């Protein structure tokens, strides 16, 4: 059979370029693997020198755990009925006041017998339920604080950025003062001021104070990002919008801001990623975020390295997911260009 009779398959040019690039850079990829392997080996040697015993098996229980709820008699009583249904057992007792109480427990934890006389505090049985551990709870708090602070910070930054460009001198000066004060003082100091001063005067709790401090902090940086994005749009865009009969607010909303949003998306993403990491500072006002939860776990387990590595990995996961989402949004917006 003639070989020429077989159909030919054309490999796409893009695939060929990718394969050739991979073959060309294989030694650099190998060097990357060697560097990462060297770093890993160095960490292993460092922990070996301090004679540290790794206890990774203790970590999972601080995400979710099987909690035991112990059921005990409240008064001197007598067991009048025990009914087993599947894996659960219902124990009915009559106390010294002739009152009937029922307890639902796991069948394999039953500690009493029918017609048995029991005393106050005696164990009847237990039930087990899955509960959220401190690390998972702290992760949820961090997500909540970061998300709310990012939204409020974006609103504050948008308003402040527009005031920064306003023709009204008072609005422009007030926005500049706010931006300079927030950017010129540490976030930790701002958290203390908001919680201990404004929190006391306005009677707000620590969660609201932490969110407020992070939002105000993020708003100052977002304002400068939005200002730069708006100023990067050619002035001809505004003039063209005005020539079509739009007023300044309409032109800003429909013409300028959509274009500025595309240009400011990468720096905004960087600011929100930094905000996730900066949210760890709210632990200083006793908010049980991921960082504080990690410290509490360490005090009870002494598994210092394992917990901090896990906490760092969780923060890295959050920021990486946000980075991927922003990259996806950028690709979607680039289609319309």
UniProtKB/TrEMBL annotation:
It is a multi-pass membrane protein. The chain crosses the membrane at residues 26-46, 135-163, 175-198, 210-230, 307-329. Residues 139-326 form the ABC transmembrane type-1 domain. GO terms for cellular component: ATP-binding cassette (ABC) transporter complex. Pfam families: BPD_transp_1 (PF00528). The keyword Hydrolase does not apply. It is found in: Cell inner membrane; Cell membrane. Belongs to the binding-protein-dependent transport system permease family. HisMQ subfamily. This is Putative glutamine transport system permease protein GlnP. It comes from Pelovirga terrestris.
